[in-house]
Structure formats: structure tokens, C-alpha cells
Amino acid sequence: MGWLAGFLAVSALCGVLAAGLVIPGVAAAGASVSGSISFFNSLPSDFAVETPSLSTKVLTSDGRPIATFYTENRVKVPLDQMSPFIRDAIVSIEDNRFYEHSGVDLRGIMRALAHNLTSNDGRQGASTLTQQYVSNVLNEAKLSQDNGDAMFLSAQKDLGDKLREMKLAVELEKRYTKDQILEGYLNIVFFNRDAYGIEAAARHFYSTSAKDLTLPQAALLAGLVNSPSYYDPVAHPEASLGRRNQVLDSMLRLGKITPAEHDAAAATGVGLSVTPGKQGCAAADMAPYFCDYISHLILNNPAYGVDAASRQAKLYRGGLTITTTLDSRLQAAAQTQVDATAGANPDKWGASLVSIQPGTGKILAMAQNTVFLPEDGKFDTQLNFNVDARDANGNDLNGAGGFQPGSTMKPFTFAEWLNEGKSPTAVVDASRRSYPVGFRWRDSCGRVLGGYSTPQRIAGLGADDDLQNNDPGYYRPMPINYGLYNSINTATFAAAAQLDFCGIQKMVNAAGLHSGLDNAPINMHQLGNLLGAIGVSPLNLITGFATFANDGRYCAPIAILEVRDAAGKKLPAQTSDCRNTIKPEVARGVNAVLQDVLKRGSGVYINPKVQSRFPVAAKTGTSNTNGSTWVVGYTTGLATASYFGDTLEGQKRPGRNITINGKFYKAIDGYMLAGPQWANYMMDAAGLYPAAVFPAPPDSKPKPPSASPRPSR
């Protein structure tokens, strides 16, 4: 008698539906049925069909994929971009009367009831595609609100839930066409934890697109939605094939395919070509650290949401298309070079390259010799060597916090020398090594701190030892430009002794330099900072040097060219932020001297082919412990910072008595590892951004006779 009770219950339900849907205004005989009709009519009939969670893609400026962010891996596609096979297959197996009913299929309900009561050949469901779509939309709304625990699975629905679902399905059919509902369903339905919607499923299981699905592929995926775990073709290929063939049988019976097509498709195997889902920067196709930088630019920007949670939702659910400034050609060249310099060194020495375009601030390449996640034989870290600790002015510490720039800070003192109207060839006394605490520096806005005086150090008066050069033969009077391109410490201090430290401070600020740890201005009243004692990130340092390359016009670095939402609407992105900060004649004077670094100065041993290919200026740099080494150089079209050194926490290791790629170094210097890395990269990359001849400074004079070149800091 159980089957009879079930039959009567469902018959009553069908009566309620018929009355509620067809003649809701007519009173029914019997209080029970009348109450059910009233209940049905009182159910809500409207709900918002929001765009489901979509994947965000991050692209290079030339359209190459960098990475994908998602909570649910879904790519929305229109119905006409789906294979006809998948449209026919899903309708044939899930709801073959889809184009005939009005959202609820009473005939289907009765057929399913009769089958379930009289057959042991599995249970049949009676939910139409429209009802399934309603259920998916309701559950997706809960997921988007991080309320997944409130989702309703089919087995958990009571009669009231089913009635509500039916009512909404009927109303939905009044608002949308059948094709719109089918499109929505195929874009929202779950196939696999890495594949939501048909486009993601096609890519995941067959490495193809929804529009190119073949008949057997489409039939398999259509069969999968009934039970994605049980019919998983990877885990259960036999069950998957059996279900696929049921779909093919239904398509044949309904006249969607010919017998020949059916037989040919049924004779094929699973034929998978799985492309696993790749989510986030750890799985980026390229530039994982640049990807991480981009993610924080979005997550820290109120333009993408009023709070952190809404910005997170925008990035991981919003279906954004983020086009960045990265040039895939330069990125490939940069990655090749840092890997060649120190890709798998067991002592975990770091190497990095970052390039920007003078005149726009666009970041064109950002690479380092590490991997994002642990990997055998690799140096792994999630710290980005190239950016500030607070990389996007947010709260997350994702950058290494910079490294001591050493002698790459010297051009800024020289720039102030020129700014105060002094000759670039004036002779300074580089023989002086003692600048004791209390030395009478010029400082119109503060007080110079620190000193270099061995007796004062011994006496405990807060001084360091007498000032040292890298080589003993340069404690003598010399032209200031000669002191710069040979990187003579005592020449820089001799110049500073004639300058207003307030002017040096303004020059460093004009180039945008700041501490890599907290973004605070570099205090140039602290003597050690003349020689680069405060850590600066490679991106910040090269932005400062690009100001010289750009005739004294500073451009803040930018990384995002365009952001569009899932509907194609433009969202706020970044635009070039440039301003005149250094006099053009000062920038030109600096460029003139820095071109000599590679020709006759501290970088002469790097690679002579570089300066023969295009006009280029550069500066070497090495910290006192040799733990941080640099070459920072540029053409008018491309500016690049190259770094090699200690990137571990605290950065306390001296760069001495180390072996890199089988070569022993008693002490590393800027020209040794960072130098070839920079030069080899520029040889590959600089030609892609044509360089002009640097404009000559107004007081250009013949250069002094060449001195014996010597590498220095």
C-alpha cells in the first residue's frame, strides 16, 4: 500500500500545482486543497538572478595570461558560443520537454512517480532545467555571501522548498526566454571542484572551449551534472562512459543525432585531456611575484570595494579582466637572466631584475630567482624582492623591504652639486677621510648626524672609522665627475661638504626615494645615507634613476593599464602620474657622467657590447659588507635595476667567500653578478624600447683623459 499512498500524495501535489498555476483565482473544493493553493499563491514569486561567481584573469599588456583568481572556476560564455551538441545533450538527458513546459513539468512528475513506484531501475527525478537553474541561483547567492552552510541539496528539500522552487521556476519562465534560461543554467552548473559552468568544464576535462566540444565530449559532460563525483571520468571512467551512453541514447531517441553519429560516439573512450585548474599567483603562468603585486594593488584599493571583504570578493568572484603593464617578452628575458645568475644556489642568494619605462612609469618586467611554493632544489619564498614591504601602501608585508643601495645613492649628491650651479668637472679633495662628529656641514633645515673618525669611534663618541674607499689609490684631489663614475666614497663626501644637506634631501625626495620597510623618506641628514645605508627596493630605486632618463620628470610606477568587470564595464585602473621634479639640465649632467661608468669607470668590466648597441647610463653599487650588490642602468626607453645579494631575513650575511654557479668569489661587487645579469638582459630587451641619444648638458665640455679603470662600489 506504500506505493498507493505515494501516488495519492503526488496526485494531490499535482492538483495543487494545476490549480495554483492554471486557475489560482478559483476556489477549490475541500479545505486542505484550498489551504495548499493559498500556501502556493503566498510563496514569493520574484528573486534576483545575479551573475554567478566568475574567474578573474590577469593579462600582460600584449594579452598573454599571467594568472587566474577564483573561488569558483567559471568563465561565462553566451549560448551561441557553446557547441550545439552540449545544448542538445543537456536538454535530452535532464529535461527533454524543456521547450514545451512552463517551468514545471506535471507530466514529468507523474512519469517519475510511476517509474519510482514500479521499477527498481534507479530513481528518476522530475525537476526541470528551469527548477535546477533556480536551485543553482539560490545556492550561488548563499555561496557569494560566504553562507555555503545554508545551501539546499536536493535530498534536504521538503515539500515547501520544492513548491517554492516550482513557483520561482514558473515566474522565471515569464521573465526570460528558454534560451536565456538554458544559457544561464549551463554557465552556473557544477561539473567539478575546478570547473563551474560548461566553459570551465570543457577546458578542465578536454583542454578545449565550450564551442568546440565534440558529440562524445558534450554527452559525457551533460551526463556528469547528475552526479559529478560518481560520474567523474577521471576517478570513475567506466561509470562515466555508461552515463555518457545513456545521454547518447536519449539524443538518438529524440532525434537530435543520427544512428551513425550515435554509434560513432558510443564507440569512443573517455578521451580526456585534463588541464588542472590553476588558481592564484602560486600557479601563475609567468611572473608570480608581479602577480602578487597586482593582487595587492586591487585588494588595498577602496575603488574596488568599501572594505577588505568586498575587495576580496571583487577579485575572486567578480570576473574581472585585469590588463597589466607587463611585457611578456621582457619578462621572459628577465626570468632567464635571474635563473642563470643564481637559479638553484643552495645557499639561497637572491637575484632580481625590474624594468620600467621612463616617461610613463609602466612596470615592464619583474623577476627573481625563486619559486613561490616549496620545490626540490629551488629557493622558495613568497617575499617579492623588487618591491617595498608595504608594496601597495597597504598593510600586508609582501615585499622584502629593500636592500642597502650602496653607491647607487651617489648620483643624487652629484645631482644636487649640479643643481647648486657647480661645475661637473670641478676638483674636490677626495684625500680627506675624517669627518668627525661636530664637523661643520651646511644644513639649512636640520642637523647632520653621524661621523667618520677612528679616534672618535675609539673614544665612544658615536663615529665610525675613517671613511674608506674600495681601493687605496684614490685618496687624492680629483674632478667630481671622475669621482662619481669611478665610485669614490671620499669624492662624494668632499662634494657633500660643499653642499646644503637640505638640498640633497630635496633631490632624493624629488626622485621619489624612500625606505623599503615603511615608505618613510630617506633621512639624508644621516651621513651613512650618502653611501646607501637605508634599504631601498629595486622598483623604487629604478624609478628614481628613470627620472634622470626622463629629463628630470618623475613618473610613479604603475602596473595596471585597464580593469573591466564581467559585463565589460571599465573600472578604475592606473594612469601615468608624472611631474617635473629635477631640472632638465641637472638630469642631463647626471646622464653624461653615468654614461662613463660603463666606458671607463666602475662598470667597465661588465660588457662593452652594451654601450656600443645604444646610449646607456648606469651606476654600480655595493654595500659595506658586500651583502647587497647592484647595477642600475637605463636608456631613454628602458630603465632596469639588477640586484644580487642576501635576501634572507635580517640580511646579515656578508657577500664574501661564497660560491655561485661553481665560481668562488672572495668578495662580490656590483659588476660581478648584478652587472652581467643587467647587461645580458638589456642586450635582449632594450632594443624593444628604442633609445634616443641623451641630450647633452648645457655646459658640456671635453672629457678628461682616461684613467686606469678599476671596479668599485
Automatic annotation (TrEMBL):
Pfam families attached to this UniProt entry: Transgly, Transpeptidase
Gene3D superfamilies recorded: Biosynthetic peptidoglycan transglycosylase-like, DD-peptidase/beta-lactamase superfamily
Keywords: Carboxypeptidase, Glycosyltransferase, Hydrolase, Multifunctional enzyme, Protease, Transferase
Tree of life domain: Bacteria
Domain Glycosyl transferase family: 63-251
Tagged with keyword Transferase: yes
Record field: catalytic activity: Preferential cleavage: (Ac)2-L-Lys-D-Ala-|-D-Ala. Also transpeptidation of peptidyl-alanyl moieties that are N-acyl substituents of D-alanine; [GlcNAc-(1->4)-Mur2Ac(oyl-L-Ala-gamma-D-Glu-L-Lys-D-Ala-D-Ala)](n)-di-trans,octa-cis-undecaprenyl diphosphate + beta-D-GlcNAc-(1->4)-Mur2Ac(oyl-L-Ala-gamma-D-Glu-L-Lys-D-Ala-D-Ala)-di-trans,octa-cis-undecaprenyl diphosphate = [GlcNAc-(1->4)-Mur2Ac(oyl-L-Ala-gamma-D-Glu-L-Lys-D-Ala-D-Ala)](n+1)-di-trans,octa-cis-undecaprenyl diphosphate + di-trans,octa-cis-undecaprenyl diphosphate + H(+)
Start and end residues of each Penicillin-binding protein transpeptidase domain: 472-652
Coiled coil residues, start to end: none
SUPFAM superfamilies xref list: beta-lactamase/transpeptidase-like, Lysozyme-like
InterPro entries xref list: Beta-lactam/transpept-like, Glyco_trans_51, Glycosyltr_51/Transpeptidase, Lysozyme-like_dom_sf, PBP_transglycosylase, PCN-bd_Tpept
Protein name: Transglycosylase domain-containing protein
Species whose genome carries this gene: Arthrobacter humicola
